[in-house]
Amino acid sequence: MRTRRGMTLVELVVAAGLLSILLVALLALMDDFLALWEKSEARRAAVEESSGVVELLAVDLAGLEPGPRGDLLAEWAFFDTDGDGVNETAWPRLRLVRHATPREIALAQAARAEKLPGEGLFEVVWAVLPARAQASDPDLRSEGVLWRGERLVGDPDGLSFFDAGYLSSRGYPTPGTTQDVSRGVLWLGLSFASQTSNLRDGWTLGSDLGDVWPCWDGWMLGRANTDAHVWNEFGEGLVRPADRPLLPRRVRIELELERERDLRRRTRLSKLVEPGDGVLTLDDGSRVPSERGRHVRVDAEWMEVLSVSGSQLSVRRGARGTRPMLHKSGALVHHGEAVVRELPIALQQEDWGL
Questions:
Q1: Is the pLDDT at 277 greater than 70, yes or no?
Q2: Which H or E run contains 30?
Q3: Using CA atoms, how far apart are residues 352 and 116, in angstroms rounded to an integer?
Q4: Which of 29, 34, 101, 112 is 20 to 30 A from 251, alpha carbon to alpha carbon?
Q5: What is the Cα–Cα distance from 293 to 296, expressed in whole angstroms?
Q6: What φ, ψ does residue 199 adopt, rounded to 5°?
Q7: Measured between alpha carbons, how far is residue 181 from residues 189, 252, 285, 291 in Å?
Q8: Phi, psi for residue 339 in degrees, rounded to 5
Q9: Is 173 in contact with 166 (CB distance < 8 Å)?
């Protein structure tokens, strides 16, 4: 009879070792999968939130009033977020007059004893303001809050959004006239194409007739503060309007949000960065976007990503109208998911299709 025999001790040890290796590999694979899933979910949620905000802004712009009662003023305002007495952070501010639907007018008139004349127009203001004025935590200084307000044209209660006294000396709208739309705003970019802008090669900011403008003044009254930033200079080469406001042909909206929970997934600088440096050394290079052309923000400076190699991030300094600055070791590297929307502007009332 054949003698039955079991596994030897050596065979058991080898089998247990192979099983351990297999389990470790499986757990590592699951960990990578869960990390990728969490990252994808965070990106999807950020894109959905940004898309909703951009759509709301696009609706306001799509209904611009082209008649004599219309207006459009887009400018850049600067704020001091670190308390050093220097306004280093730029945010856009947009004021416009748009067509109002009968339902919107009825809702605005509902609480009034005396109905306002049927102008059929709304004044709308959009403004990005610092989330925390002079925040003590440097990680929070890059965060902005997007506000929106609307009022009927001709409303005797309160100032017009275009009134010189509507904004405070610090650039804040009159309290109670706006509502919080979205927090965690890293960037809101507005570009305006005139009748002469050439968009075949993309949206190139500049002052030439073929370029697009980062600001707009519908009546070319010089209402934007040109001393604050060169982006507030507008109108060179354009024809001054007579009885109707000058409106752009197309508008490009670009929005980037960074939620509070996203801050836990961001990396920091591991070395001091001088204004002339083109390479950043990071704690973790896998926590920044690697696609060329994406943007990151450190303190108040935007930088365009060129490449990522290990913990080294190559960038183009001073992007998005900012200037190269000194950044201390440990500074947080912010970035968000950009949502871009381009829309044409109806320049004639017949184009509304009402």
A1: yes
A2: helix 9-62
A3: 24
A4: 101
A5: 10
A6: -105, 10
A7: 16, 19, 32, 29
A8: -120, 125
A9: yes
Mean pLDDT taken over the chain = 87
The 10s digit of each residue's pLDDT in 189-212 is 999 999 899 998 899 998 888 999
3-state helix, strand, coil in the chain (%, to 5): 25, 30, 45
Distance (Å, whole) CA 122 – CA 144: 25
Backbone φ, ψ for residue 221 (5° rounding): -100, 5
Q: What is the DSSP string of 246-276?
A: ---SEEEEEEEE--GGGGGG--BBSS-B-TT
pLDDT at position 352: 43
Q: Is the distance from CB of 173 to CB of 160 less than 8 angstroms?
A: no
Residue with tokens 């590999």: 25
pLDDT in tens, 14-57: 888 888 888 888 888 887 777 666 666 666 666 677 888 999 99
pLDDT at 101 over 90: no
- Predicted TM-score (pTM) of the model is 0.84
Distance CA 2, CA 18 (A): 30
**Triad 69, 73, 74: Cα angle to 5°:** 155
Tell how strand 301-309 and strand 295-298 pair up.
Answer: antiparallel
Number of residues that this document lists for the chain: 354
| Ramachandran category for residue 318: left, alpha or beta (phi over 0 → left; psi -120 to 50 → alpha) | left
Residue 160 · residue 126 · CB < 8 Å: no
Strand order of the β-sheet with 121-130 is: 216-217, 72-79, 89-99, 121-130, 144-152, 179-193, 250-257, 337-344
